[in-house]
Amino acid sequence: MARKLGKDFSFLPSAAARPDHDKRVQALDLARRLPALALSARQAAASAQAGLHGRRRAGVGENFWQFRPFIPGEAAQNVDWRRSARDDRLYVRQREWEAAQVLWVWADLSGSMNYRSDHGAQSKLDRALILALALADSTVRAGERAGWLGLTRLSAARDIVDSLAVALIAQERASDGAFADLPQAAPLRMREKAALIGDFLVDVADFAACLQRLSAQGARGHALMIFDPAEEDFPFSGQTEFYDEAGDLLRAGRAEDYAAPYQARLAAHREALAAAARAQGWTFALHSTARPASEALLNLRLALTADGAR
Q1: Contacts of 298 (CB under 8 A, 6+ apart)
Q2: 130-162: per-residue pLDDT in tens?
Q3: I need a labelling partner for 57 at 20 to 30 A (CA). Which of 29, 65, 67, 279 fits?
């Protein structure tokens, strides 16, 4: 599945990967998918957590890290007089740098995310759910609070994955499986973080407006664009049938003729998304479903913590 890149361009799956012939658009079934995805999310979180060990640094936080010599010229209030009294030098108490205390996660669960080619390890939707749930889990493991943007409250409970899964199932039933392409949440508070995960095959102006709204009070975050390998490589040739989310059909006599203009348009779309993210102080990255979920999760955590350090 895929949706429009702007107003006049669409990339759609081949007949072999299109939605069920009788249903036009395959409805999501989160109640069936989430137990297995939640387990995968916990495994990914545990794997990424190991990669984050030993990455302590100095900064604003509550936990003591080390003493360092006082540097002439810095504020005298930084001196730890108790430690300095035991020596003939002045020392400063450094606290361990901590990532954002609040992290909101969100994943695109709309129809285009249900696409998977033979080259992807799983559908874009499943990968996005695993990453969002795993990110929330690893955030709570680090002693922070997490929540699903626009859906739940913040929580530091160890069962965060289960509570988010229950909330998502309830939302699916309430909305009859209709999910928005972008989060509709209100502006986040300053120092809060957000991680948006989706294919972002939407109008760039809508994407930019979404980030601007979330960042209105100084919040920052990261946008991760999920893609199936076929969406990048366009491995189609000859007579091919393409479908949109509504099930509308496009027959291409020579699909290979679409490859070059499609790939150029996709590259331009990605660059425009990245520029829109940078304009709001956000980071932007790509992730293929052919790559391990733990790799993307570790990169997400590092991107969010690096932004916090800045």
Answers
A1: 47, 48, 51, 52
A2: 999 999 988 888 888 999 999 999 999 888 999
A3: 279
Measured from the Cβ of residue 40, the count of other Cβ atoms closer than 10 Å reads 20
Rg of the chain (C-alpha set) = 22
Name the residue with tokens 């995805």.
37
Place of tokens 């699916």: 172
In terms of C-beta density within 10 A (0-12 exposed, 13-18 middle, 19 or more buried), how is residue 14 classed?
middle
- pLDDT tens profile 1-48: 333 333 334 444 443 344 443 333 444 565 566 666 666 666 666 665
126: tokens are: 């499943």
Q: Give the tens place of pLDDT for each residue, 193-241.
A: 999 999 999 999 999 999 999 999 989 999 999 999 999 999 999 998 8
Using the predicted structure, report yes or no on whether residue 307 has a pLDDT greater than 80: no
| Residue 226 contacts residue 289 (beta carbons within 8 Å) | yes
Instruction: For residue 229, give the nearest of 112, 116, 130, 109 by alpha carbon.
Output: 116
Identify the helix (H) or strand (E) that includes residue 210: helix 204-214
Distance CA 302, CA 214 (A): 21
Distances (CA, A) of 209 to 6, 196, 277, 284, 286: 14, 14, 10, 15, 20
Runs of H (alpha helix) within 22-115: 30-52, 81-84
- Provide the whole-model pTM: 0.74
Contacts of 29 (CB under 8 A, 6+ apart): none
- Please give the single-letter amino acid code of residue 121: A
Taking the C-alpha atoms of residue 97 and residue 100, their distance in angstroms, rounded to an integer, is 10
Q: How is residue 277 written in tokens?
A: 């993210």
- Amino acid (1-letter code) at residue 96: E
Contact of 107 with 129, CB cutoff 8 Å: yes
Q: How much is the pLDDT for 12? A: 46
